[in-house]
Amino acid sequence: MPENTKKSTIVLHLDLYEPTRDLSLDQKGMIYDAIFRYSLGEEHQISNQVAKMAFDYIRANLDRASRRYSEIVEKRKESGRLGGVAKAINATKNIANVASAKSAKQTLANLAIREDKIREEEREVGSSDSMVVQKELCF
Questions:
Q1: Taking the alpha carbons of 35, 36, 39, 42 in that order, is the dihedral positive or negative?
Q2: Rounded to an integer, what distance in angstroms lies between the CA atom of residue 80 and that of residue 63?
Q3: Domain residue extents for the chain
Q4: Torsion over CA of 102, 107, 110 and 114, rounded to 10 degrees?
Q5: Hey, is 41 helix, strand or coil?
Q6: Residue 132 has what pLDDT?
Q7: Rounded to 5°, angle at Cα 100 from 96 and 105
Q8: pTM
């Protein structure tokens, strides 16, 4: 369990009580102390052989839980990294869309100006006696 000393919790499942049920309070205290010392990565010593056997069983469960926790942390890191990459890609696309939108706005503005010029020309031509309408489109 010393591989992950950043973890601030340990989980003791109820089935771990069975190996210690019939032990004395002194033996249970030794196991309790050893659990915390082991989880913190410190040296632990159990002098009583019966308590040591019970702790060895508990230690195997603590190691298994620690490995499972480390696997979950790694999977979440990877998922977070992939989510960050996807977010960056989407942000890049959004920037491109904004640039396209600005370009489209400018194009619409230019078309509106051209349309106004065409209307002016139509009015000028329409006011003459011939009533010929000329349209000139410049794109």
A1: negative
A2: 26
A3: 14-126
A4: -160
A5: coil
A6: 46
A7: 150
A8: 0.52
Q: Which residue has the tokens 């904004």?
A: 98
The pLDDT of 3-20, averaged and rounded, is: 78
Residue 37: is its pLDDT beyond 60?
yes
For residue 49, give every residue at least 6 positions away whose Cβ sits within 8 Å of its Cβ, in sequence order, or none.
none
Residue predicted with more confidence, 88 or 4: 88
Residue that is written with structure tokens 């102390």 in the block: 33
Q: Which residue has the higher pLDDT, 67 or 7?
A: 67
The mean per-residue pLDDT over the stretch 90-97 comes to 65
Q: Are 118 and 136 in contact (CB under 8 A)?
A: yes
Residues in the chain: 139
What pLDDT sits at residue 51? 93
How is residue 62 written in tokens?
């603590």
69 within 8 A of 9, measured Cβ to Cβ: no
Task: Write out the two tokens for 39.
Answer: 């989880």
DSSP 129: T
Written as six digits, the tokens of 30 are: 């030794």
What six digits make up the tokens of 66?
């620690």
